[in-house]
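Job type: complex structure
Entries:
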Amino acid sequence: MLFSVDPASSAPLHEQVAASVRREMAAGRLVRGERLPSAKEAASLLDINLHTVLRAYQTLRDEGLIDLRRGRGAVVTATDPTGQARLHTLVAELVTEARRVGATRADLTRLIESEF
Amino acid sequence: MTETQPRTGTRPLDPRPTRALIVSAFVGPVIASAGVVALVAARDDLPARIAVHWGVDGAPDRFLGFTGTAVTAGLATALVPLALVALGRFMHRSARGLAAALAGGIAVLLGAVTFGSALAQRGSSSATSGFPGWGWLIAALVGAVLVGTALARWGRSDEAVRPGPRGPLPAEAARLEVSTTTRLAWVGRTALPSRGVLIVSVLGLLAVVWVAMSGVPWVLVIVPALGVLLVGTSAARVVIDQSGLRVTSLGLTWLTVALDHIDHASVGTVSPMREFGGWGSRVAIDGRRGYVTRAGEALVIRRIGQSDVVVTIDGGDEAAAVLNTLALRVG
């Protein structure tokens, strides 16, 4: 799997790490049951803080994409990691775009509700 | 498969691998000569029928006279390593150090075991008891490791220094469209087919059980160790980051390629048996280094002025793009 983070980007590093994992899931390269590199290893490879990776993994856990267990590390648990990761990625991009054009949270929420 | 001939570098060819191979050619004949001299000196003390082979139960099951023992031990000790040296002569220059190490180590092992087990029978009228040369066997193993390691170290190509300048990345070489401040890390896995691991496990277990049932039950204690070794080496981790490529398993690093040694990376196909003579961490006759676990898609790294490196992985195109992108940054 490919991790990609840009310290010069305005996006927080932990979000970039989480986005890397989601991108791999969306592309079908990370499937259910597969184990992610340990937070320690990922932090070392990317030369970033361990807590940054842990925060990214916790975000992915809260999204229901992975499970974090002591001794087992981070394991993909989503039943449909491709679809769910793609959805999360699209939402993240949507929020970024809304901010760019100056739309508020209420504007965005209204737009989404009108589409449902 | 991509073409494997490396580009010519600016550094003169390293002569040490060839010199080590030449020296290793003398190890077997020298040990064989010394062994024959030692046997002749001890002739009066040796039994008329010298045991030359022992069964798994430790009892001798094959005997030769003095002349037969000396000739067999001498020829085996001299010729088997020479055959390896001859094979090494046809191998790529960078792989000759390994051939030298094998030839030297095997010469020591064969010489110590064949002549040692015969010399250990001095003073007995007939060899009917168990294997007499355990001391020689241990000395043989230690000596073989020492000689093999020394020749391997001497004959190792100096790969720490880049042999030449990097040219421009080929237009067709994949790369990622990311900013130069983006940090990239690629993590993958290369593993032997589970069916192959199962077959090797079953065959190995059957062999150990057969030996155990033949009167050597203590051999069963090595089963857990063999299991750990097999499981640990049947799969390896492939990591690409800002320092280059690494292939590791069981805490050992099998293969490394520094970024500044990479000309470019691409995807090719590989046949482990045909091109590397087997599976795992290998050196091909043409000098290519490889960690090959299956036939099919592989990451092929063209090094500057050195032989290619091949690693069988899925997603090799992405790994190649990451390597090319990172290699471009180090110049």
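Summary: Residues 81-101 of chain A form the longest helix (21 residues). Residues 108 and 114 of chain A are 10 Å apart (CA to CA).
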